[in-house]
Write the structure tokens for this entry.
Amino acid sequence: MSGWQVIAAGLLVTYLAAGGHRDKQPRVPENGKQLGTIFNNDINNILYASSGPDITVEEYRHAVECLLDAQPGVLAQNVGCPDPVIYRSEIATTWDKYVGGDQAAAMAALLAAGTDPLTITVEACHERGVLIVASYRMNAEDFYKRQLELYDFGRAHKDWAIPGANCLDPAIPEVYEHRMAIFREVAENYDIDGIEFDFRRWNHMISDPHNNYPILTQMVRDTRTMLDEVAKKKGRNKLLLGARVGPILAGPFIPEEFPGAGPAYINPSCQDLGLDVKTWINEGVVDYVCPTLFWPRWPGLPRTAEFAEIAQGTKVGIYPTIFPLPAWLEGEDSQPIAADDQERRRQYRTELGQLALQCYADGADGISTFNWVQHHQTGMVRNPMRSAWGDGAKQEQMAILPKLCNPQALRQYLAQDAN
């Protein structure tokens, strides 16, 4: 790193530590139907794609700014599983301790520089006027049998896991209290604009969900109360609470009724996950809800209309999730969409835009996304992810994202291809 880069990095860290971004916080809308597009970003895709132990503050911030070039209304940055986390914490375990590899090395380097991914992301978002919520995968099993090994609390209490799953059970009071402590700490210590509960990564949210669902409802209520308390202490008008939930409210999931969906066991209803979404909306304890399938292929849309119906007359926004992958872009015979492949780029953006318009026709207040990677084009980050999609697909994501919040602008954009 050159001398001027060292100086710039030091100045940035000092600025963040001094709370220099606090005057630039965007005001949180009182109405959750007015959030624009909600972009959910994976916990480690920047750490994974970085230069590992040689990462700099500037490198991480640059990647965040590339993401923000797509102009989301809200960045739901995944920051924890809910434990471990990618920020400094006295409650949870930080990502560098047990995850391993270049991700952990990159996290350790940022901590050594006196900062962390969430601090950098908050600063970048508020510079752009973008709301930033700390999104937690409520019972992630991304690392499968290794998941409980990634944080101290999990290592110490493996007997508190949900039977047959690789995650802890919030029906156990100590697990519940540990999570509430994590949520309070991040709200108090970071200038975030709210918290998002991702109940769709993965599929075991609580033991015996048909009977224990009131426990998750109480967690939502307690978090709402905590966020209101913290907002008042900080002089904020409010802090957001959102949730990513199942594709239907209740009943059996029938894959044939959801083109592009995977099997039923990875797409349980909200009821089968233990999520009493109707009560959350009726009580107004959440600001937005993102119904979603689990990594479908197109069309892969949830049953938006039934969520929109129960949210009518409330301030709770419904933001169905659109995924970035058509079936024709994967498989042994598929080829990445090159930047100069105009025909396949046109097909990609047309199908993607039509999915968003269908969500609006079904009553959506906006669109949410999951694992889009428009900020991983060649040259943007050291090691771009999902190169099999091609820069053409990623450039189409970048171009259409700013229009997802406005159905009229989206129609005009797509109409250009018809002329």
Notes: The beta strands are 38-41, 74-80, 131-137, 194-198, 240-245, 288-291, 317-318, 321-322, 368-370. The chain has a mean pLDDT of 93. The chain is about 40% helix and 10% strand.
